[in-house]
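Weekly puzzle thread! Below is a chain. First person to post its structure in token form gets bragging rights.
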Amino acid sequence: MAFFLDSINTCLWDHLQQTDKKIVLYGMGDGAEKIRAVLDDIGVEVDDIMASDEFVRGHSFMGIRVKKLSEIEELYGDDFIILVCFGTQMPDVMERIYAMAEKHELYAPNVPVVGDGLFTLEYAREHYKELKSVYDMLADEQSRKVFENVIRYKLSGDILLLKQCETPREEMFDLLNVGTEEIYVDLGAYNGDTLVEFLNETSMQFRKLYAMEPDHKNYEKLKRRLYMIGSGLLEAYNCGAWDSETTMMFSMRAGRSSKVDSGTVKRGREVKMMSVDHMLQGGEATLIKYDVEGSEQQAINGSKQTLQSFKPRLNVALYHRNEDMFAIPLQIASINKRYKLYLRHHAYIPDWDTNLYCI
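Winning reply:
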């Protein structure tokens, strides 16, 4: 049977190189800078920058005065392409973007959260065998639909492909069969929000909680948020999840974006790293969440003993690096072939809430 990649013969970056339309970046910040850098590399000029009406306020960004959509329309008619340069899961913002996409040519270019390079057609063909292997091992039709749509999105920037395959986030708890006797390990616990989500789902019933969070400010927020849980039931560590016990430089950014700094110049601050196997000391886990800003593969390697001995159910972020869509599922299958692999995308533009659920 033909694989869906066989029918794809172009990608967004090719289209942007060939179009005569004006290129308008929608958004100000790190995402716009990343996309601008890619466009510069491929010889595509940015003609303008826009923001939502309430954020314009006379701002300039990258030397260009930021405009409202109405100004862009007045300047260029319909002869422009909008490139969304930020991520959102806010329903009203997403609906605004979808409404723009109905009226104008609009894309959300896929650039990796962590790491270099782009998920181009050449890259997909280079990893054809791995992508097809993962597609073939997925456990249900929805997983295969998500896999195909997300890969097609990565190549095309078409946000409707994401919308067509999204399912409610609450489905996660059903897929993972979350109960009241869990030993839950939360890697990349941020300020405790996903722990609270878990506690709400289980009505505060569980056996034990473990949490790792490398950012000190987030770690302190987590402890304050979960002050009511005794130290015997919650073990929280101000460290990053890795495959060994070491110390690494972390780039500390706002929100969830702290990550291992792979640059040659030291930035951020030193953070202790720890493996799940070391933390548990041979003890059991029934449920593990991996959302560690691009360090998922190392964190999974640091859980090998636990995955082989106890077969915990897994919730793994699959969107930080270009290779995550194929490398992580293959990695988990190589550690324990008994896992069934489910893929889901929950409402987000771009594909930042695409997750692998392993049972």
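Puzzle host: Confirmed. Bonus trivia for everyone else. The chain has 16 helices and 17 strands.
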